Amino acid sequence: MDRGHRPLAFAAYAGVQDSFGSEQDRQMLLVAAIANPVILLFRGLPSGADEGAFIAFLIVPFLCMLAAFMSSFLAVRHTRAEEESGRAELVGATPAGRMLPTVVTLVHGLVANFALSILTALALIAVGLEAPGSFVVGSAAGVVGVFFLGVGLVAAQFMRTSRGANTVAVTVLLSTYLLAGIGNALGTPSDDLQRMESSWLTWLSPFGWAENSRPFADDDLWPLVLCKLVGLALAATAIVLQSRRDIGSAFVAERPGRADAHPALSTTTALVWRLSAGSIVGWSIGAAISGLLATTLASVVEEIGAENPAVEAILAQITSRQGSIAQGLLTTFFVMIGILAACAAVQTITRARQEETHGTAEPVLASPIDRVRWLADFVVVGFAAVVIILTAGVAAASLGILVNDGDPDLYRGAITVAVGQVVAASVFLVVTALVFVVAPRWTIAAGWTLVLLAAVVGLFGPIFGMPESLTWLSPVAAAPVPVPDGVDVRGLWWLLGAIAVAGAATFGLMRRRELAAGG
């Protein structure tokens, strides 16, 4: 994943050169960003219109997020996953001892994040940016990676399974990312609307620490030192915890199961639901929070616009297609909820792959259940997860509309954009299922890569200067949205066509597919 930082750095530079080559263009975008708190929820911290500072505003949060995912997954993979497979016990029985795998994982993670930092800095220097700021950008990504390396190591001590540990780490990651965004959105802008001083909430998040280093503007290293020290402290805590428990155990005990299965578990569909219910609840909570923000921040944005006519004009331009600021915010947030639903869909299908590799799919398929029905259950539950998550978003958005005495048209807008995102998320569901059938070893990597690329292209393609025809290749961007005179169907027909073709191919090819239990 560290190799993905260089293409992102080059793409950001090329996009800025093509779309915001002049300082005036960059200043106008920063004014729009500071005027619209939603943008700051998912971007960085504005620090000026200089080319380097502007690029840092666009990419630092995403470089840090990539590093965080890489580091937390690495930590769990080489600790808790090794205990699950039994390999850690074999290593512990040798002179190496049972503590060595955790220590080696820590060293591995530190080296990987150091390499990531250097490569990112060199990529930015290669396109002509100043070396000090480039190294601050690289260091910001690296230290956030170290922080989440510590989070992953600690999660592996508390949770009994790698799935549970990864869930904890990802929850911390998404929560702190959103916390930093909210802290930025609630900050204090400069008089010229080119720089934002973040609120105290940002300082509770490692992403906030990274962004407050302000590359190419202040080049402040102290927030990065704080982030790295906390990450190392978490890693040290994990080592202490490791020394106080037995291999295979965890500090959070597994809930004992029933002596007899509930009658509802007599079907494979219910079994898949049981396996997926916890993660669906987690994604739904995130969707509900996003839906509530979608309809409660509109008054804040309109108030900012009312205080500054220039800001009001820019906001009107941003939301011209949706007809109002409130509708524009609603669409933006529901694209994010659609991405959450796509994540849940991909996670459900990858669970089928995990069942296959762990050997638990074989006893099920040894029963009268055929392989097509078995896979269909995962697809059905995945689609149910998509609907539940978007419904949670609509319910929370409706509550926000009710509390704020909003426009009744917002209800119809929320339902319209939610239905569109159901279609978009279903594309990821069936495409990941198709990969599971034809190239099972690539299921997890392909599924998550598709979601990541679609999110980047759909949300940030216009910022990087991509044409609309290219951004609509992202299902979340091609989904229908409400407009003043009805519904803009956008790429609805190609989305439905992709679902039909991929779905038919998936179940047709699954009839002749054998179990692929190996790695």
Query: Quick check: average pLDDT?
Result: 84
Q: Span between N and C termini? A: 19 Å
User: How large is the share of residues in beta strands?
Assistant: under 5%
The helix/strand class is mainly alpha
- Proportion of residues in helical segments: over 70%
Poorly predicted ranges: none
Number of strand elements:
4
Biggest beta sheet attributes: 2 strands, antiparallel
Instruction: Kindly provide the radius of gyration, computed on alpha-carbon positions and rounded to a whole number of angstroms.
Output: 23 Å
Output the strand order for the largest sheet: 1-2
Order of SSEs: HHHHHHHHHEEHHHHHHHHHHHHEEH
Query: How large is the count of helical segments?
Result: 22
- The backbone outline, from C-alpha atoms, is globular
Characterise the protein shown here.
- This protein is mainly alpha-helical.
- Helices cover 72% and strands 2% of the residues.
- The strands form two sheets. Strands 1-2 form a two-stranded antiparallel sheet. It has a two-stranded antiparallel ribbon with strand order 3-4.
- α1 runs parallel beside α7, α4 (51-77) runs parallel beside α8 (131-158) and α15 packs parallel to α18 (409-438).
Write the layout of secondary structure elements.
Elements: H1 5-19, H2 23-35, H3 37-42, H4 51-77, H5 80-85, H6 87-92, H7 100-126, H8 131-158, H9 162-185, E1 188-189, E2 196-197, H10 206-211, H11 222-243, H12 268-296, H13 298-307, H14 309-318, H15 325-357, H16 361-365, H17 371-403, H18 409-438, H19 443-460, H20 468-471, H21 475-478, E3 481-483, E4 486-488, H22 492-510
Antiparallel strand pairs: 1-2, 3-4
